[in-house]
Amino acid sequence: xxxxxxxxxxxxxxxKNYDPTRxxxxxxxxxxxxxxxxxxxxxxxxxxxxxxxxxxxRTGGPAVTEDVLGELVVxxxxxxxxxxxxxxxxxCGFTTFTDEELNAKLSASTGDASPAPMRxxxxxxxxxxxxxxxxxxxxxxxxxxxxxVRGFIFDMETxxxxxxxxxxxxxHA
Length: 173
Known about the structure:
Elements: H1 3-16, E1 30-35, H2 43-47, E2 54-59, H3 66-79, E3 83-89, H4 99-110, H5 126-138, E4 149-154, E5 161-164
């Protein structure tokens, strides 16, 4: 049986005890942009917040793309989230290649270069990447200026979060 078939079977069991009150319109308090890495799936545990309070946007890298910015606008302006947390992590697979390298590898291995150049949003430095993300979100005109936008790196070895200081607020000693 495939994993999808197992998931469908499990869903039928889940639906028997499903709480229809969950169909109410969501009212999250915070939106978290995080990586698609499955190790970051326990956001209620990592952040100590109820699942219902967290609007989650998952993306590779995690890259703040035009699509992600659109989702942040909807989360903030339509769903009513009041804070934005950008959550990167150590050991991210997107630091292990460049876009150019992956384009070349996939073109060679498939024999089809027609999708290239694809943008994969690879990066090398998680702190600098987080600063860039903060700036992208902060500079969007439709993200309310009174909404805090903060960036963090989750340490995969310790489980601890460390805050990344935004580029504009860094002080030079």
